[in-house]
Amino acid sequence: MYRYVLFSRCIKYRDKKLMKEIKKIELNYYNSLNNINKGIYLNEFLTNLNYHEYLIGKLHDSIEKIKLNKELNELRERYDHIIKHKKQMNDNLSKSSNEKGNRSVYKRFMLLNV
Fold first, then answer.
1. Kind plus residue range of the DSSP H or E element containing 33
2. Nearest to 53 by CA among 42, 1, 45
3. How far is CA 104 from CA 4, 57, 69, 108, in A?
4. pTM (2 decimals)?
5. Which UniProt keywords are listed (predicted)?
């Protein structure tokens, strides 16, 4: 029993590290896409999420349902990671554009006073 607990912890740790790398690689890939392909990628992701939810709803208690549920949770985690970074990028862009706008107004003001 004790060995199983250690083995289980090892598997969870391995899965966490693997998911971290997958999310990093996937985010780099997503950021390399143009805006049209980013939308297509997210739509395909949502389709995959919805399909997993549909399959889980159709299955009765079985090992297949447990496996699909784990996959669904991993898909959600990856999707949420992309969305979180997408929002951060948009926030950073809007902040930088606001700062640029303020700077340009400030520069105009300075030019008028000189």
1. none
2. 45
3. 64, 56, 52, 6
4. 0.74
5. Coiled coil
